[in-house]
Amino acid sequence: MTSNKKETIDSFTHKYSKICQENSWIDPSLYNEYGVKRGLRDKNGEGVLAGLTNISLIKSHDEVDGKRIPCDGKLLYRGYNITDLVKGFAHNQQYGFEEITYLLLFGSLPNEEQLAHFKDILVESRNLPKNFVRDVIMKAPSRDIMNSLTKSVLTLASYDETIDDVSLDNVLRQCLMLISIFPMLCVYGYHAYNHYECNESFYIHRPDDQLSTAQNILKMLRPDKQFTELEAKVLDIALVLHMEHGGGNNSTFTTRVVSSSGSDTYSVIAAALSSLKGPKHGGANIKVVEMVADIKSHVANPRDEEEVKSYLTKILNKEVFDRRGLIYGMGHAVYSISDPRAQIFKGFVEKLADDRDRRSDFELYAMIERLAPQVIAKERKIYKGVSANVDFYSGFVYSMLDIPLELYTPLFAMARIVGWSAHRLEELVNADKIIRPAYESPLIDKDYRVMQER
Ligand SMILES: CC(=O)SCCNC(=O)CCNC(=O)[C@H](O)C(C)(C)COP(=O)(O)OP(=O)(O)OC[C@H]1O[C@@H](n2cnc3c(N)ncnc32)[C@H](O)[C@@H]1OP(=O)(O)O
Ligand SMILES: O=C([O-])CC(=O)C(=O)O
Predict the structure, then answer these.
(1) Atom 4 in ligand 2: residue holding the nearest Cα
(2) I want to staple 390 with a disulfide (CB 3.0 to 4.6 A). Which of 202, 341, 403, 448 is the partner?
(3) What is the ipTM of this complex?
């Protein structure tokens, strides 16, 4: 674009964005007047009921004498406590991602034979169309691997002759294919970016049919294909913790909404990915790591609580960092006292940090986790507690596995594709009704005026 053209457009958008701001503004008091729940949530954090699901259950409070009393967060996948599931496969020295995929999609834990067969099916489903890496992934590589993943998903639709068939067996086939190829789409997308934009060497390692999803991610990522058992097990747990979180989280609700219009699997998943990458949702894991780096580079003594507190206050007041006023990795739309997934991360992050010589970083994270709720409560009106969410420690864990920052949110997607798939199937089986909430409007009638009279 010539600099003249750019100036013309910039001056138009500068002027008209102010007009948009003025004409789009709705008096916040009208939300109360019309009984509209901002963000579809009550002030105490309870979401508007939008559906029923058997896939997972999230508990954040107890009902005592008709009152909501916040409690430690609890998450059940198909009725099983996430903490027990993780303990179960970790105790058996197994990888959990494939087993929990089976559980979330089909509703029950697999026996050995069912799991072995299911793993074979995932391997069989892991097929990229001929030359897809060359023709799609290597074209216009971007630092934003979520966008590159979305591009790949939408392009895959062109290779599917039954794209519009929303019968369950076809949708399940499409979902299994996406679940098994997401790691390739993300890791190869990163390699293309790293080569073309960062001048690094380009290599494509193929996944190994005998390895688990977590092992294959590390194998495809590393130049020498090498990783330790501990690294792969830690990544596997991280994947399991991110697989599913009810029907109401922003990306799964998007899955439900777009599925309800009758759209195809590729479009549904592209929409869910677009939701997940937002910094208030899955994109927060990148932001947390950037925020902690920013704190380290601006606070003279990161061990000094008062200095860290004062910097966190500046973040909240939009004076520093990305000036959005958010302390990333803290707070949740549902949980108040704790997010069980953050607790599980915390259970092993300290030991991992000691192993990796990152003790001082761990201490800073732990300090932020302790101070942020106090700072947020002081500066904002809090109706329920604020605590660390799943995104708080995940990025730190990935950094200790030497996973590049660009892949943090894509890793969330590689796991959540399973939850989205289960919800898409559940929506198609049960609801079969277009989702269409209502918007109240304070508009008044205006008389139309022809162009010459305006
Ligand atoms: C996988 C996931 O999606 S987990 C969430 C990942 N996102 C983040 O970590 C980003 C930081 N956190 C946030 O932005 C928020 O906590 C959210 C979006 C997750 C939840 O927001 P809400 O549902 O509005 O939470 P809640 O009702 O408890 O918030 C009360 C007030 O505190 C503010 N608040 C909550 N958490 C934070 C935070 N981390 N930083 C700054 N302000 C916060 C809210 O903006 C809200 O203020 P408002 O009424 O002026 O809008
Ligand atoms: O439930 C939410 O709103 C966000 C969340 O934690 C998730 O999707 O994992």
Answers:
(1) 249
(2) 341
(3) 0.98
- The bound ligand whose nearest atom lies closest to the alpha carbon of 312 is 1
236, 339, 361, 391: the active-site residue: 391
Report the nearest atom of ligand 2 relative to the CA of 252: 8
In this predicted structure, the answer to whether residue 42 has a pLDDT above a threshold of 90 is no
pTM of the model: 0.97
- Pick the residue whose CA is nearest to atom 2 on ligand 1: 281
Closest ligand by atom to 43 CA? 1
Testing ligand 2's pocket by substitution, the residue of 57, 58, 104, 250 carrying the most ligand atoms inside 8 A of its CB is 250
Catalytic residue among 61, 245, 332, 423: 332
Q: Quick check: is 61 catalytic?
A: no
* Structural domains in the chain plus CATH codes: 74-277+405-431 (1.10.580.10), 284-400 (1.10.230.10)
Please give the distance, rounded to the nearest whole angstrom, from the Cα atom of residue 332 to the centre of ligand 1: 6
CA of 349 from ligand 1 middle (Å) equals 24
The answer to whether 391 is a known catalytic residue is yes
* 207-249 per-position pLDDT tens digit: 999 999 999 999 999 999 999 999 999 999 999 999 999 999 9
Nearest CA to ligand 1 atom 5: 281
The confidence score (pLDDT) of residue 431 equals 75
The rounded Å distance from CA 278 to ligand 1 centre is 13
Per-residue pLDDT, 432 = 77
The pLDDT, as a whole number, for residue 2 is 84
Atom nearest to 43 CA in ligand 1? 27
